[in-house]
Design a protein that fits this description.
By secondary structure, the protein is of the alpha/beta class. The chain has three domains: 78 residues, Nucleic acid-binding proteins (OB fold (Dihydrolipoamide Acetyltransferase, E2P), Beta Barrel); 159 residues, P-loop containing nucleotide triphosphate hydrolases (Rossmann fold), CATH 3.40.50.300; 77 residues, Ribonucleotide Reductase Protein R1, domain 1, CATH 1.10.40. The protein is built from eleven helices and 13 strands.
Amino acid sequence: MDDQQLSKLGWKSCFSGQLTELEERTAFPVRVGSHFGSRVLCLTGKDEITLSIEQLEDCGELAVGDWLLLDNETRRGARRLPRESLISRKAAGVKSQTQLIAANVDTLFIVCSCNHDFNLSRLERYLALASESRVIPIVVLTKADLCEDRDAFRQQVLQLQSGLIVETVDARVRDDMEPLSYWCRSGQTVALVGSSGAGKSTLAMSLGAAPISTQGIREDDSKGRHTTTVRSIHCISAGGVLIDTPGMRELQLVDCEEGVAEVFDEIVALAQGCQFRDCSHQSEPGCAIAEAILRGELDARRLRNYQKLQAEQARNTQTLHERRKQDKKLGHFYRATLLANQKRKY
Protein backbone atom coordinates (compact mmCIF):
# COMPACT_ATOMS: atom_id res chain seq x y z
CA MET A 1 0.00 0.00 0.00
CA ASP A 2 1.53 3.30 -1.14
CA ASP A 3 0.20 6.00 1.22
CA GLN A 4 1.89 8.76 -0.78
CA GLN A 5 0.09 7.81 -3.98
CA LEU A 6 -3.19 7.27 -2.14
CA SER A 7 -2.94 10.69 -0.46
CA LYS A 8 -3.25 12.24 -3.93
CA LEU A 9 -6.75 10.74 -3.99
CA GLY A 10 -7.73 12.03 -0.54
CA TRP A 11 -6.52 9.07 1.60
CA LYS A 12 -6.26 10.07 5.27
CA SER A 13 -5.33 8.55 8.61
CA CYS A 14 -9.03 8.19 9.45
CA PHE A 15 -9.24 5.63 6.65
CA SER A 16 -5.93 3.82 7.18
CA GLY A 17 -6.81 3.45 10.87
CA GLN A 18 -9.83 1.32 9.90
CA LEU A 19 -7.71 -1.44 8.35
CA THR A 20 -6.92 -4.57 10.33
CA GLU A 21 -3.45 -6.16 10.25
CA LEU A 22 -4.83 -8.96 8.09
CA GLU A 23 -6.35 -6.51 5.62
CA GLU A 24 -3.08 -4.62 5.34
CA ARG A 25 -1.44 -7.87 4.19
CA THR A 26 -4.17 -9.30 1.97
CA ALA A 27 -6.00 -6.31 0.48
CA PHE A 28 -5.37 -2.86 -0.97
CA PRO A 29 -7.51 0.31 -0.96
CA VAL A 30 -8.99 1.97 -4.04
CA ARG A 31 -11.28 4.94 -4.48
CA VAL A 32 -14.39 4.87 -6.63
CA GLY A 33 -13.57 7.31 -9.41
CA SER A 34 -16.69 6.92 -11.53
CA HIS A 35 -19.79 4.75 -11.72
CA PHE A 36 -21.11 3.61 -15.12
CA GLY A 37 -24.07 1.49 -14.03
CA SER A 38 -22.77 -2.05 -14.40
CA ARG A 39 -19.10 -1.01 -14.32
CA VAL A 40 -17.12 0.91 -11.70
CA LEU A 41 -13.83 2.73 -12.28
CA CYS A 42 -11.52 2.37 -9.25
CA LEU A 43 -8.37 4.44 -8.66
CA THR A 44 -5.20 3.36 -6.83
CA GLY A 45 -3.19 6.55 -7.22
CA LYS A 46 -1.03 4.84 -9.86
CA ASP A 47 -3.48 2.83 -11.92
CA GLU A 48 -7.13 2.63 -12.92
CA ILE A 49 -9.06 -0.62 -12.45
CA THR A 50 -12.46 -1.22 -14.05
CA LEU A 51 -14.58 -3.77 -12.20
CA SER A 52 -18.10 -5.11 -12.61
CA ILE A 53 -20.81 -4.57 -10.02
CA GLU A 54 -20.74 -8.34 -9.39
CA GLN A 55 -17.07 -8.15 -8.38
CA LEU A 56 -17.96 -5.45 -5.83
CA GLU A 57 -21.22 -6.92 -4.50
CA ASP A 58 -19.75 -7.35 -0.99
CA CYS A 59 -19.16 -3.58 -0.80
CA GLY A 60 -22.85 -2.64 -0.88
CA GLU A 61 -24.29 0.40 -2.66
CA LEU A 62 -21.50 2.57 -4.01
CA ALA A 63 -21.00 6.29 -4.51
CA VAL A 64 -18.24 8.16 -6.29
CA GLY A 65 -15.65 8.95 -3.62
CA ASP A 66 -16.10 5.72 -1.65
CA TRP A 67 -13.00 3.88 -0.41
CA LEU A 68 -13.01 0.12 -1.01
CA LEU A 69 -10.71 -2.74 -0.12
CA LEU A 70 -9.90 -5.15 -2.95
CA ASP A 71 -8.43 -8.61 -2.44
CA ASN A 72 -4.78 -8.76 -3.54
CA GLU A 73 -5.25 -11.97 -5.53
CA THR A 74 -8.79 -11.89 -6.94
CA ARG A 75 -9.28 -8.10 -7.01
CA ARG A 76 -12.81 -8.64 -5.79
CA GLY A 77 -14.26 -6.12 -3.38
CA ALA A 78 -13.79 -7.17 0.26
CA ARG A 79 -15.64 -4.29 1.91
CA ARG A 80 -16.39 -0.58 1.75
CA LEU A 81 -14.72 1.54 4.42
CA PRO A 82 -17.10 3.56 6.65
CA ARG A 83 -17.79 6.96 5.10
CA GLU A 84 -16.74 10.28 6.59
CA SER A 85 -19.64 11.97 4.78
CA LEU A 86 -22.33 11.12 2.25
CA ILE A 87 -24.28 13.49 0.02
CA SER A 88 -27.56 12.08 -1.28
CA ARG A 89 -30.97 13.13 -2.52
CA LYS A 90 -34.30 11.61 -3.40
CA ALA A 91 -33.97 10.04 -6.85
CA ALA A 92 -35.49 12.18 -9.58
CA GLY A 93 -38.98 11.26 -10.72
CA VAL A 94 -41.64 9.33 -8.85
CA LYS A 95 -39.43 6.52 -7.53
CA SER A 96 -39.18 6.24 -3.74
CA GLN A 97 -35.41 5.79 -3.74
CA THR A 98 -32.34 7.60 -2.50
CA GLN A 99 -29.67 8.55 -5.02
CA LEU A 100 -26.08 8.77 -3.78
CA ILE A 101 -24.25 11.82 -5.11
CA ALA A 102 -20.78 11.66 -3.53
CA ALA A 103 -19.00 10.17 -0.52
CA ASN A 104 -16.13 11.26 1.72
CA VAL A 105 -16.40 14.90 0.68
CA ASP A 106 -14.77 17.59 2.81
CA THR A 107 -16.09 20.71 1.07
CA LEU A 108 -19.09 21.29 -1.17
CA PHE A 109 -18.80 24.04 -3.77
CA ILE A 110 -22.38 25.15 -4.45
CA VAL A 111 -22.15 26.79 -7.86
CA CYS A 112 -24.62 29.43 -9.00
CA SER A 113 -24.11 32.01 -11.74
CA CYS A 114 -24.80 35.73 -11.61
CA ASN A 115 -27.55 35.62 -14.22
CA HIS A 116 -30.99 34.01 -14.56
CA ASP A 117 -29.69 30.99 -12.61
CA PHE A 118 -29.39 33.05 -9.40
CA ASN A 119 -32.02 31.75 -6.96
CA LEU A 120 -31.88 32.17 -3.17
CA SER A 121 -34.44 29.44 -2.46
CA ARG A 122 -32.45 26.93 -4.50
CA LEU A 123 -29.27 27.88 -2.67
CA GLU A 124 -31.02 27.26 0.66
CA ARG A 125 -31.91 23.80 -0.60
CA TYR A 126 -28.26 23.03 -1.35
CA LEU A 127 -27.16 24.47 1.99
CA ALA A 128 -29.59 22.18 3.82
CA LEU A 129 -28.14 19.23 1.91
CA ALA A 130 -24.60 20.25 2.90
CA SER A 131 -25.53 20.71 6.57
CA GLU A 132 -27.23 17.32 6.75
CA SER A 133 -24.22 15.70 5.03
CA ARG A 134 -21.79 17.35 7.49
CA VAL A 135 -19.64 18.94 4.80
CA ILE A 136 -18.44 22.54 4.62
CA PRO A 137 -20.51 24.55 2.12
CA ILE A 138 -18.87 27.24 -0.01
CA VAL A 139 -21.18 29.18 -2.33
CA VAL A 140 -19.34 30.02 -5.54
CA LEU A 141 -21.05 32.70 -7.63
CA THR A 142 -19.73 32.33 -11.17
CA LYS A 143 -19.83 34.49 -14.31
CA ALA A 144 -19.22 37.62 -12.26
CA ASP A 145 -18.05 39.31 -15.47
CA LEU A 146 -21.64 39.21 -16.75
CA CYS A 147 -23.13 41.34 -13.96
CA GLU A 148 -22.72 45.02 -13.11
CA ASP A 149 -22.52 44.63 -9.32
CA ARG A 150 -21.06 41.30 -8.18
CA ASP A 151 -21.06 42.34 -4.53
CA ALA A 152 -24.86 42.84 -4.58
CA PHE A 153 -25.26 39.12 -5.40
CA ARG A 154 -22.75 38.16 -2.71
CA GLN A 155 -24.48 40.22 0.00
CA GLN A 156 -27.81 38.51 -0.69
CA VAL A 157 -26.27 35.05 -0.27
CA LEU A 158 -24.42 36.00 2.92
CA GLN A 159 -27.79 36.52 4.60
CA LEU A 160 -28.82 32.88 4.09
CA GLN A 161 -26.74 31.29 6.87
CA SER A 162 -24.52 32.65 9.60
CA GLY A 163 -20.82 32.13 8.93
CA LEU A 164 -21.43 31.20 5.30
CA ILE A 165 -18.45 31.62 2.93
CA VAL A 166 -19.34 33.13 -0.44
CA GLU A 167 -16.89 33.69 -3.29
CA THR A 168 -17.76 35.62 -6.45
CA VAL A 169 -15.59 34.65 -9.41
CA ASP A 170 -14.90 34.90 -13.07
CA ALA A 171 -13.44 31.40 -13.45
CA ARG A 172 -11.13 32.60 -16.22
CA VAL A 173 -9.37 35.10 -13.91
CA ARG A 174 -6.60 33.56 -11.77
CA ASP A 175 -6.90 36.10 -8.93
CA ASP A 176 -10.63 35.34 -8.60
CA MET A 177 -9.86 31.65 -8.20
CA GLU A 178 -7.14 32.04 -5.57
CA PRO A 179 -9.50 32.06 -2.51
CA LEU A 180 -10.76 28.60 -3.52
CA SER A 181 -7.31 27.00 -3.51
CA TYR A 182 -7.26 26.57 0.29
CA TRP A 183 -10.22 24.17 0.11
CA CYS A 184 -8.56 22.24 -2.72
CA ARG A 185 -5.24 21.48 -1.03
CA SER A 186 -3.63 18.05 -0.77
CA GLY A 187 -5.71 15.46 1.07
CA GLN A 188 -8.96 17.37 0.53
CA THR A 189 -11.96 16.30 -1.52
CA VAL A 190 -14.21 18.95 -3.03
CA ALA A 191 -17.51 18.27 -4.80
CA LEU A 192 -19.26 20.57 -7.27
CA VAL A 193 -23.04 20.84 -7.34
CA GLY A 194 -25.36 23.26 -9.08
CA SER A 195 -27.74 23.71 -11.96
CA SER A 196 -26.83 22.82 -15.51
CA GLY A 197 -25.14 25.79 -17.17
CA ALA A 198 -24.06 27.39 -13.88
CA GLY A 199 -20.40 27.15 -14.84
CA LYS A 200 -19.30 24.03 -12.95
CA SER A 201 -17.25 22.61 -15.83
CA THR A 202 -15.44 25.91 -16.44
CA LEU A 203 -14.77 26.18 -12.72
CA ALA A 204 -13.46 22.61 -12.59
CA MET A 205 -11.05 23.21 -15.47
CA SER A 206 -9.85 26.46 -13.88
CA LEU A 207 -9.04 24.45 -10.75
CA GLY A 208 -6.86 22.20 -12.88
CA ALA A 209 -9.18 19.28 -13.62
CA ALA A 210 -8.81 17.49 -16.95
CA PRO A 211 -10.90 18.99 -19.78
CA ILE A 212 -14.60 18.32 -19.29
CA SER A 213 -17.02 18.08 -22.19
CA THR A 214 -19.31 21.13 -22.27
CA GLN A 215 -22.14 22.52 -24.34
CA GLY A 216 -23.31 26.12 -24.62
CA ILE A 217 -26.12 27.57 -22.54
CA ARG A 218 -29.29 29.00 -24.04
CA GLU A 219 -29.09 32.79 -24.11
CA ASP A 220 -32.79 33.36 -23.45
CA ASP A 221 -32.88 31.78 -19.99
CA SER A 222 -29.19 31.12 -19.14
CA LYS A 223 -29.92 27.42 -18.72
CA GLY A 224 -27.59 24.77 -20.07
CA ARG A 225 -27.81 21.23 -21.25
CA HIS A 226 -26.36 18.60 -18.92
CA THR A 227 -22.72 19.25 -19.77
CA THR A 228 -21.40 16.63 -17.32
CA THR A 229 -23.10 13.28 -17.75
CA VAL A 230 -21.50 11.18 -14.98
CA ARG A 231 -20.04 11.84 -11.55
CA SER A 232 -16.28 11.56 -11.68
CA ILE A 233 -13.12 12.30 -9.69
CA HIS A 234 -10.41 14.62 -11.00
CA CYS A 235 -7.02 15.50 -9.52
CA ILE A 236 -6.62 19.30 -9.35
CA SER A 237 -3.71 21.73 -9.32
CA ALA A 238 -3.72 22.58 -5.59
CA GLY A 239 -3.16 18.91 -4.73
CA GLY A 240 -6.66 17.78 -3.79
CA VAL A 241 -9.35 15.95 -5.73
CA LEU A 242 -12.60 17.23 -7.17
CA ILE A 243 -15.84 15.33 -7.75
CA ASP A 244 -17.76 16.83 -10.65
CA THR A 245 -21.48 16.08 -10.86
CA PRO A 246 -24.11 16.48 -13.61
CA GLY A 247 -26.27 19.59 -13.43
CA MET A 248 -29.35 18.96 -11.28
CA ARG A 249 -32.73 20.00 -12.61
CA GLU A 250 -34.36 18.52 -9.51
CA LEU A 251 -33.01 18.31 -5.96
CA GLN A 252 -35.55 16.71 -3.64
CA LEU A 253 -34.50 16.50 0.01
CA VAL A 254 -34.93 13.32 2.04
CA ASP A 255 -33.85 12.55 5.64
CA CYS A 256 -32.82 16.20 5.93
CA GLU A 257 -34.67 17.50 8.99
CA GLU A 258 -31.54 18.64 10.84
CA GLY A 259 -30.04 20.21 7.73
CA VAL A 260 -33.16 22.31 7.09
CA ALA A 261 -33.29 23.38 10.75
CA GLU A 262 -29.63 24.48 10.71
CA VAL A 263 -30.01 26.62 7.58
CA PHE A 264 -33.16 28.29 8.94
CA ASP A 265 -31.99 28.44 12.55
CA GLU A 266 -33.39 31.94 13.13
CA ILE A 267 -36.89 30.74 12.19
CA VAL A 268 -36.56 27.72 14.50
CA ALA A 269 -35.48 30.06 17.32
CA LEU A 270 -38.32 32.51 16.66
CA ALA A 271 -40.88 29.68 16.68
CA GLN A 272 -40.02 29.03 20.32
CA GLY A 273 -41.69 32.35 21.14
CA CYS A 274 -45.02 31.56 19.45
CA GLN A 275 -48.05 31.43 21.73
CA PHE A 276 -49.13 28.02 20.40
CA ARG A 277 -46.79 25.05 20.04
CA ASP A 278 -48.51 23.92 16.79
CA CYS A 279 -48.50 27.44 15.32
CA SER A 280 -48.54 27.35 11.50
CA HIS A 281 -47.19 30.92 11.35
CA GLN A 282 -50.08 32.11 9.24
CA SER A 283 -52.80 33.97 11.12
CA GLU A 284 -52.62 32.64 14.69
CA PRO A 285 -52.50 35.21 17.51
CA GLY A 286 -49.18 35.54 19.28
CA CYS A 287 -47.12 34.24 16.34
CA ALA A 288 -43.56 35.42 16.89
CA ILE A 289 -42.59 34.69 13.29
CA ALA A 290 -45.48 36.70 11.80
CA GLU A 291 -44.54 39.59 14.06
CA ALA A 292 -40.92 39.40 12.93
CA ILE A 293 -42.04 39.59 9.28
CA LEU A 294 -44.21 42.63 10.02
CA ARG A 295 -41.25 44.36 11.70
CA GLY A 296 -39.09 43.62 8.65
CA GLU A 297 -36.76 41.36 10.63
CA LEU A 298 -37.58 38.22 8.60
CA ASP A 299 -38.14 37.80 4.88
CA ALA A 300 -41.52 36.19 4.08
CA ARG A 301 -39.86 34.34 1.17
CA ARG A 302 -37.51 32.67 3.61
CA LEU A 303 -40.40 31.44 5.79
CA ARG A 304 -42.21 30.04 2.74
CA ASN A 305 -39.12 28.16 1.62
CA TYR A 306 -38.48 26.82 5.13
CA GLN A 307 -42.01 25.44 5.31
CA LYS A 308 -41.72 24.02 1.77
CA LEU A 309 -38.43 22.22 2.44
CA GLN A 310 -39.58 21.02 5.86
CA ALA A 311 -42.75 19.48 4.38
CA GLU A 312 -40.88 18.06 1.37
CA GLN A 313 -38.20 16.25 3.35
CA ALA A 314 -40.79 14.89 5.82
CA ARG A 315 -42.96 13.54 2.98
CA ASN A 316 -40.05 12.01 1.09
CA THR A 317 -38.59 10.49 4.25
CA GLN A 318 -41.89 8.89 5.21
CA THR A 319 -42.39 7.53 1.69
CA LEU A 320 -38.84 6.13 1.63
CA HIS A 321 -39.23 4.44 5.02
CA GLU A 322 -42.54 2.89 3.90
CA ARG A 323 -40.83 1.59 0.74
CA ARG A 324 -38.00 0.07 2.79
CA LYS A 325 -40.52 -1.54 5.13
CA GLN A 326 -42.41 -3.07 2.19
CA ASP A 327 -39.16 -4.33 0.63
CA LYS A 328 -38.20 -5.92 3.95
CA LYS A 329 -41.56 -7.71 4.21
CA LEU A 330 -41.26 -8.88 0.61
CA GLY A 331 -37.77 -10.22 1.33
CA HIS A 332 -39.07 -12.18 4.33
CA PHE A 333 -41.85 -13.60 2.13
CA TYR A 334 -39.42 -14.73 -0.59
CA ARG A 335 -37.10 -16.37 1.94
CA ALA A 336 -40.01 -18.16 3.64
CA THR A 337 -41.31 -19.39 0.27
CA LEU A 338 -37.86 -20.62 -0.75
CA LEU A 339 -37.43 -22.44 2.56
CA ALA A 340 -40.87 -24.07 2.24
CA ASN A 341 -40.09 -25.29 -1.28
CA GLN A 342 -36.79 -26.75 -0.12
CA LYS A 343 -38.55 -28.65 2.70
CA ARG A 344 -41.06 -30.14 0.24
CA LYS A 345 -38.20 -31.57 -1.84
CA TYR A 346 -36.91 -33.52 1.13
